[in-house]
């Protein structure tokens, strides 16, 4: 049995601690367990965040061990080596795969009824590895994928068109990394397709303009890392929305990373595609319409993730 309002976070670093604080301010959980290889780090972060609880809805936040993932509706894995300046996500894979091999089987054994969400990079390759390590039913293990990249894209386009980003409907698909791409063919705002919208405004009508937008979205993490050493606020917000959708059984659509089983002829890899997320996890991956070029880019993205997986030693 799981507690519908308990979330365990493995990794009390930049992302994990910010996620814990975000969940406190969000008010959608009642119990948070913060777990880290450094017990003192977990204790310190839990103490600091607990002192903020009186300003929000009551939440219990405590440090713990992997054994304390028992009964959690969701366990988020945010542990792992941070991405260094100039380091690509594939270069992270070997370092973080070893950590995952120690954590995932243990969490799956302790809490076989809970969901497992990966936030550690490279998230697509690690999600696929975690699915194999956990041995849980399909959809119960998934990654944050390109949810953050999609939010970055919508913010970028909202600035272009001077509108609320919540009214921009567009997705970044594929790998959360250098091979990701914007699905322009399915994007719209107020039911006005981007081809028409860009033509009317002249802001994103050329391939050069669209490539520039994609480049800014793709390189956003590198720019942030160069300036402050890592990302935390936006990814914590993305994870909070995913967790909220699960706990409230919202059946919301997110571009989370999950194993692809025959979509566009792709198998044996995890990628980010629009998927319905509810209390069961990834309920269904949606068959979004893609142009021939976008399908080619998705297959190239799958090949990039597969190459990363094959590099595992």
From TrEMBL:
EC number: 1.1.1.27
Activity modulation: Allosterically activated by fructose 1,6-bisphosphate (FBP).
Entry-annotated residues carrying Phosphotyrosine: 222
Entry's transmembrane regions: none
Gene Ontology cellular component annotations, sorted alphabetically: cytoplasm
Top-tier EC class: oxidoreductase
Catalytic activity of the protein: (S)-lactate + NAD(+) = pyruvate + NADH + H(+)
Known pathway: Fermentation; pyruvate fermentation to lactate; (S)-lactate from pyruvate: step 1/1
InterPro entries to which the protein is assigned, alphabetical: L-lactate/malate_DH, L-lactate_DH, L-lactate_DH_AS, Lactate/malate_DH_C, Lactate/malate_DH_N, Lactate_DH/Glyco_Ohase_4_C, NAD(P)-bd_dom_sf
Protein residues bound to substrate: 83, 89, 121-124, 149-152, 231
Residues the entry annotates as binding beta-D-fructose 1,6-bisphosphate: 154, 169
Keywords noted in UniProt: Allosteric enzyme, Cytoplasm, NAD, Oxidoreductase, Phosphoprotein
NCBIfam families assigned to the protein according to its UniProt record, in alphabetical order: L-LDH-NAD, PRK00066.1
PANTHER family associated with the record: L-2-HYDROXYCARBOXYLATE DEHYDROGENASE (NAD(P)(+)) (PTHR43128), L-LACTATE DEHYDROGENASE (PTHR43128:SF16)
Subunit-level organization: Homotetramer.
Function of the molecule: Catalyzes the reversible oxidation of malate to oxaloacetate. Catalyzes the conversion of lactate to pyruvate.
The name this protein goes by in its record: L-lactate dehydrogenase
